């Protein structure tokens, strides 16, 4: 099974008149667009669902530093290196806001990190693909951050206050990331034929994994119905995926690149692009831990945690010493 299947307390969605007491008042607040705050009453399933999603989102930001971090020392100019360094650092910041938002729901950071390192908690499938050329850094900014924005703009209006507020700042930064990626792609597409070919190759490899980032099709999305009722998800996986395709096709045309999908076609009647079938077997394989880089990514995180133990110990020892000194001074 590819889903953790967090127990949300019900096997089917219940209508307002089937809810009682606190649950009903809670749902009415959500339906009225009132944000839920950490000290408010909430159903246990809502709390668990948010911990699952926010912690996975945080892990994605943290693991998501690795593919791009791979190119910091090899960026082609000092300016590109400084921009990439700032971008990767932003992703670390996003992870930290998100861990803090999840902590407001009563889970500890140590627990979340243990769940990532033991393989219990997921992170986005997209970060299990390798970055083979500099053009991949352009493609990640353009397509991965581009997809992240499409998914995250609605989260700025989700029902849980701390998550929604964290997303506002994250989205502003993701917007800069998307532009820097498109700028790299533009430079390559206006460059030599070899550079343009490198950009096309990156698009070929990142396009389909980016469409998979939005999660399984609506028919297969086990968490969507309940998350929609609770105002966590405002649009379905397929709706957001379609939005990404519609906004990206003209950008690829502007770059003079070809999206690697022979079935991609404007559908006049629907007012959207039709696109080809997604290889869901590949998605599920990556989510189960068998993608090209899953093992390397997890090992890099576990190693970083273990190698940083001395620093955490030193911080705690310093805090203890300060506490002892202030107790002694007060005595
Ligand atoms: N990868 O029922 P649904 C970024 C899992 S941030 C792995 O549809 P849900 C910034 C899903 O967890 C990217 N697993 O689930 C950046 C569930 O399993 P579970 C991360 C996936 O939660 C850029 C199962 O499949 N963004 O890119 C994926 O309602 C560049 C069934 O799926 C977020 O996390 C996947 N792609 O909808 C950083 C946004 N998709 O948990 C560095 C917040 C689905 O029951 C560099 N999250 N699964 O065991 C969301 O919006 C939602 O959680 C979805 C999934 C839409 C991802």
Can you give keywords for this protein?
331 residues, mainly alpha, two-stranded antiparallel ribbon, 65% helix, 2% strand, globular, binds Phenylacetyl coenzyme A
Shape category: globular
Task: Please tally the β strands and state the result.
Answer: 2
Order of helices and strands: HHHHHHHHHHEEHHH
- The Rg value, from CA coordinates, equals 22 Å
**Rounded average pLDDT:** 95
The hetero compounds bound to this protein are: Phenylacetyl coenzyme A
State which percent range the strand residues make up: under 5%
Main sheet specs: 2 strands, antiparallel
Summed up, the helix count is: 13
How many angstroms does the end-to-end distance come to? 58 Å
Helix content: 55-70%
Task: Give, in spatial order, the strands making up the sheet with the most strands.
Answer: 1-2
Low-confidence stretches: none
Could you say which structural class the secondary elements and strand pairing correspond to? Answer: mainly alpha
Polypeptide structure, described:
The chain is mainly alpha-helical. It has 13 helices and 2 strands. Helix 6 (134-155) runs parallel beside helix 8. The chain binds Phenylacetyl coenzyme A. Residues 2-5, 52-53, 56-57, 60-61, 64, 91, 122, 124-125, 140, 144-145, 148, 151, 212-216, 221-224, 227, 233, 237, 287 line the site of Phenylacetyl coenzyme A (FAQ).
């Amino acid at each position: 099974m590819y889903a953790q299947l967090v127990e949300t307390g019900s096997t089917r969605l219940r209508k307002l008149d089937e809810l009682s007491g606190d649950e009903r008042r809670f749902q009415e607040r959500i339906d009225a667009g009132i944000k839920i705050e950490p000290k408010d009453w909430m159903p246990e399933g809502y709390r668990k669902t948010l911990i699952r999603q926010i912690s996975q989102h945080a892990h994605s930001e943290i693991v998501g530093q690795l593919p791009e971090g791979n190119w910091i020392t090899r960026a082609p100019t000092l300016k590109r290196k400084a921009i990439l360094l700032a971008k990767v650092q932003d992703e670390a910041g996003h992870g930290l806001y998100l861990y803090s938002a999840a902590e407001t729901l009563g889970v500890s950071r140590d627990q979340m990190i243990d769940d990532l390192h033991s393989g219990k908690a997921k992170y986005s499938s997209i970060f299990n693909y390798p970055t083979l050329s500099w053009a991949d850094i352009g493609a990640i900014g353009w397509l991965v951050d581009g997809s992240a924005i499409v998914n995250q703009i609605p989260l700025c209006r989700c029902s849980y206050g701390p998550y929604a507020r964290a997303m506002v700042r994250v989205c502003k930064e993701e917007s800069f990331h998307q532009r820097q990626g498109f700028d790299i792609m533009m430079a390559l597409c206006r460059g030599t034929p070899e550079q343009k070919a490198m950009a096309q190759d990156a698009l070929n490899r990142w396009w389909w994994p980016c469409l998979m980032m939005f999660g399984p099709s609506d028919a297969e999305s086990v968490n969507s119905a309940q998350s929609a009722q609770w105002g966590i998800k405002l649009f379905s996986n397929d709706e957001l995926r379609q939005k990404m395709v519609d906004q990206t096709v003209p950008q690829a045309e502007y770059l003079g690149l070809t999206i690697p999908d022979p079935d991609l076609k404007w559908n006049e009647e629907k007012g959207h692009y039709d696109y080809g079938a997604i290889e869901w077997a590949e998605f599920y394989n990556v989510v189960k831990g068998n993608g090209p880089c899953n093992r390397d990514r997890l090992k890099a995180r576990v190693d970083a945690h273990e190698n940083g133990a001395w620093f955490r110990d030193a911080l705690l020892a310093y805090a203890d010493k300060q506490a002892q000194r202030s107790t002694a001074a007060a005595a």
